[in-house]
Write a structure and sequence with these properties.
The chain has 79 residues and is mainly beta. Helix content is 0%, strand content 54%. It has strands at 11-18, 22-23, 26-29, 34-40, 45-51, 56-59, 62-63, 66-74. The chain is globular.
Length: 79
């Protein structure tokens, strides 16, 4: 998937449905400082990580069946 941080303060959110228990792995690389959050269907945050520009980051929380939301935004909302 690909997204942009425009306009200023933009957040891109992707939904994914998980059919069985396991790990939901999200790998992100961006030239900007990036903040990634994973939330469950009840909007509870289950994982979060920020990374400096150019650094790859990985989130891999344990999840059960259900819908999850992956939010990406520029860390600081100033890009």
């Amino acid at each position: 998937m690909a997204g942009t941080f425009l306009p200023l303060g933009d957040a891109d959110t992707f939904a994914i449905d998980v059919d069985f228990p396991g790990h939901l792995q999200v790998d992100v690389r961006s030239p900007h400082q990036t903040l990634v959050r994973i939330r469950d269907a009840g909007e509870r945050q289950i994982a979060e990580r920020g990374a400096e520009g150019g650094a790859e980051q990985r989130l891999r929380p344990e999840v059960g069946p259900g819908r999850y939301f992956i939010e990406l935004r520029e860390w600081g909302d100033n890009a």
